[in-house]
Hints:
Blueprint: H1 4-14, E1 26-30, E2 33-36, E3 41-44, H2 47-50, H3 59-69, H4 83-95, E4 99-103, H5 106-126, E5 134-138, H6 147-151, H7 156-159, E6 169-172, H8 177-183, E7 188-193, E8 196-197, E9 203-204, H9 207-220, E10 223-227, E11 251-254, E12 265-269, H10 271-274, H11 290-305, H12 308-329, E13 333-339, E14 342-347, H13 350-362, E15 365-366, E16 368-370, E17 374-377, H14 385-414
Parallel strand pairs: 3-15, 5-6, 5-7, 7-10, 10-11
Antiparallel strand pairs: 1-2, 2-3, 4-12, 8-9, 11-12, 13-14, 14-17, 16-17
Helix pairs in contact: 3-11, 4-11, 12-14, 13-14
Amino acid sequence: MMNLASIQAAEKKLLVQTYARNPHLFVSGKGVYLRDEEGNDFLDLLSGIGVSALGYAHPAIEKAIAEQSKTLLHTSNLFYHTGTADLALRLTEITGLDRVFFCNSGTEAWEAALKMARAHAGLLRNEGKKIGTKILALDHSFHGRTMGAVSTTHKSQYREPFAPLVPGVEFVTFNDVADLRAKFSADVCAICVEPVQGEGGIRVLSQEFFAAARELCDSTGALLLVDEIQSGMGRTGKWCAYQHYGIQPDITTLAKPLAGGIPMGAMVCTEEVARAFTPGMHGTTFGGGPLACAVANAVIDTMQQTNLLAHVNDVGGYFREQLEGLAKKHNVIVDVRGLGLMLGIELNSAELAKSVLEEMMRRRIIINRTSETVLRFLPPYILERKHVNIAVNALDDILKHATQAGAVLAGEHANG
């Protein structure tokens, strides 16, 4: 069996270097814990960047994988299998939308949404309506790594190496209704939003901005595209984060926790929008395969049968209260943000955030850092209050020592 050092050496030689990996080799998991090669258990408050909603080694997922593996793994979308209609029905019921396109990832789902927006605008033009091809996206946004998705992603570090990108995208200041109205026109075919920006720093869209986006789209026939890749499937305490606002999108995209760790994405849209796609315009070889559908059905059924959304609201509310309590004790915490079990605390420096992250890992608690200064928490939905207490107590101790060390350093500088 290869150990961490040998795997690191092999990957350094063989893999395209797209990730700066943490130096840990995980070999198994159970519940909300991951176990490394030396038998150490880590409390996982990241769940594979929001993927492992039911934690690790969940019996419902194990059963679905085992049973499906005995019958059929792949057919392609040239043929039928029993899982797609069942899963599509579940997704239309929980989203309030009408039709589903299955794919393999969040970025593919978003790519499909962008193509659908352009195709729908073309359909409207053919019917005599005045509508263009321009797309509005938001500052701090992150929608994925493919060319269309990265073109609607704001951060320059993700965009600039691949220029020129897909043309016709303009960015709107986050939660600035006046800027949105100024940049919207009949040239726009879609407005793109994340109800809670994940990579952007757990920034929550305002009710006023979301409502304005819906109103503007309704005025011209443009589409409201809502990216729920990270915030959807129960992460915020509702099936979709837009349901907190009482605003319905034309298209939403789902992925991360959808199939509990098996790669899967979905674009879900209204009947009106779906008429823009006809056979041959878009497709996928692996999307909506029997294995992914079987596991996704099991995930949704388990969440419904165990009333897991109520649990997310309860534990997520408790988690936020504890983080807000920390903010009252430590003035290095600038803000506490998020919904449900999609939470972040913003610190007053990137250096501090990095050191806190490293110390949490040393204490075997997994979180991550986004937008340089934000500590992000995306734990499994089965997280309990006792796990929250472990994490918050660790953060409290780390911030206390960091503040003391900073005070000592400041005193030394003051004394020359």
